[in-house]
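Below is a complete specimen:
___
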Amino acid sequence: MKVLLIGSGGREHALAWKIAQSPFLSQLICAPGNPGTASLDKTENIDIKANDIDGLVSYAAGNDIDLVVVGPEEPLVLGITDRMKEAGIKVFGPSKAASQLEGSKAFMKDLLAKAGVPTAFYGRFTDIETATQFIKENGAPIVVKTDGLAAGKGVIICETEEDAVQAATDMLSGTSFGDAGAEVVIEEFLEGEEISFFALCDGQTVLPLTSAQDHKRAFDNDEGPNTGGMGAYSPAHVMTNRIEEIIIRDHLEPTLKTMAAEGYPFTGVLFAGLMLTKDGPKMLEYNIRFGDPECQALMLRMEGDLLDILDKAAETRLSEVLTDISWSKDPSICVVMATKGYPGPYQKGSVIQGLSQIKAAQVFHAGTALDDKGNLLAVGGRVLNVCAKADDLERARDRAYSALKQIDWPDGFYRKDIGWRAFCKEQKAS
C-alpha cells in the first residue's frame, strides 16, 4: 500500500514509525513530515503543509495513494476527509461535520447532552454580560474554554470569579485566542483524576484501544501555564477493567450511536478526555485524533498491524479486526523536550546534538528541521519526544531520563516528574 500521512509533529513521527512496520506498506509519504519521519525506511517527506487541503488532495489524486491518514485536527476540521472522498481517495478520519466534535466545544457539549453522556454542567456564551451572570451564579472554581481550536491551550481553570470573568472577556474580545474565542463554554469544575482513553471507530463499530495520562502544565509539580502536553505515560495508573467498561458503555458507544443518528457518523480516532470523579467517569472533552504526546507512548505499546487496522476502519470493516490489536504489558513513557520560553514566546534555530548516542530510548521528532549543513535545529515549541518502555514504569522513566541527559541542547527544557501520579500511588501502597 502507498500511504499519505498528513502532519509534522511528534504524533505523526510515532504513527509513521508504527505504520512503517507493516508488511502491507510499499511507500509512506509524509506531508510535510519532519527529519524524524524522513529517516524511516520506505518513507519520504513532501513539502505540502497539513492545512493545504487543495495541495494534499491534488497530490493524493495524482500519485496513486491507497490510503490517507490524517494526524492533526486542523485539516480534519477544514474538511479534508470530505475532499479526499469526493476525489475517490480512501481516507481515515472523520468528516467535516463529525469533526465539530473537537472543532466546537459548544457542539460537543450539546451532543453529549443529546447522547446522555455524563459531563460537567455548562453554559455557552457569545457576550460577556450573560457569561458574567453565569459565573456569578455558579461561583468558583470554574472552567472557561474557547469554543474553537486553540492548540490544546484554550482551557483556563479559574480559582476566582474575577479570574473567570477576565478569562471570558479576553476570549470573547479575541485578545487571547483570536476567532477561537468568539464563543466560550463555561462549565463546572470537576474534581478527580484526569485520564485519556482512545478508540478507533468506523461509524458503526468501536475498537477500544488503551489509556494514558497527560501532563499539561509546563513545569514540575503541575505548575505554570497549560501547554499542548509536556509528557505522558501509558497505561494510566487509575485505569481498571471496570472503569474501561463504563467508559465504553456510557460514553463512547452512546456518542457513536447519536452521531450516526444525527447524520454524521464518526470514522477516526475518538480521544476521550475524562475526569474520574467520586460519581464515576465524566467526559471533559472529545478530540478527533490521537493525543500528542499520548500517541507516542501508545505506539510503543501497541502490538499488531496499525496500517491494516486503519485501512479496515476507512472501509467500515473494523468489526473484522477487533482482536488484531493487543497491548504490551510493559508500560511506556514519553517526555517532551521543549524550547525555553514555551508555551510563551521562544527563539527558533538553536542546534540540537547528541541524538545519535541514544540507544535505550526512542526519540520522536516534533518541532525540528535540518539546515543546509545537516545540523538539527529546533524550530517549534515542543521539539523532541523521548520515549521508553520497560517492565515497570520506574525503569521506563529511568531510561527516558537517562536518554534526555545525552541530548546536548542548552536552549531546551523538560519536566522531570512525568508519571508522578503513578509513583505517588505506588509509594502510598507501599
About this structure: The chain has four domains: 2-96, 127-182, 193-327, 332-429.
